[in-house]
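Q: Got a minute? One more chain.
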Amino acid sequence: MVRRHAWSAEVGGRSRSFYHSPMHDHVAFILRRATSEDASALRIILLDTFDSTWRPNITDAAASAFLREDRPRTYVGDRGLHFWVIEVAGETIGFVDWEGDFVNALHVRSTHSRLGVGRRLMDHAEAEIARAGYSSVRLETDTFNSRSQAFYAARGYQEADRYPDQEWRSGLTTILLVKPLVNDGSSPAETGASPLDRTGSLLSQG
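A: Always. Here it is, folded:
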């Protein structure tokens, strides 16, 4: 397993975590809460993952509606200040969004895939959800998204339910995934308690 070295600091009154991987020593990643200045970059990330993940699997009508209504702009306007983001060299390249025990979204730009960005974002989200007192974390993916399913299975998520996807109206099936958490802010996979304790790979997930 590749170890990532992390440290925290207060920068401009905001808490930020910095980390790097020995595989990418020339790259310094910063984990922080999103600000209003990230809005444009967050919209670009959502459009990027839409093109790479969703567009090939939904109807033309659903894709046209998504773009015409500019749903990324609406989502960022409604939820953007709740996001946690990772930036590198001043560029915001990924984010995670959660409410309560439910992860709404994890998105990473395709240009920065397989650098551990998605894993670092999920580590943070799961730790914060556990610290808030929840005993498990929930999220959704779709049956067509095998990369997403593999990523979450490697983190200890297990399927809890399946039902029709209501968002895209494209005949897709949504999978509800659930993972137990432990009280110290880590997950069973991180403490060795889960039989699914494996290293996940990065994905762009909507």
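A: Strands lie at 5-11, 14-20, 29-33, 84-88, 91-99, 102-108, 136-142, 158-164, 173-180.
Q: Perfect, thanks.
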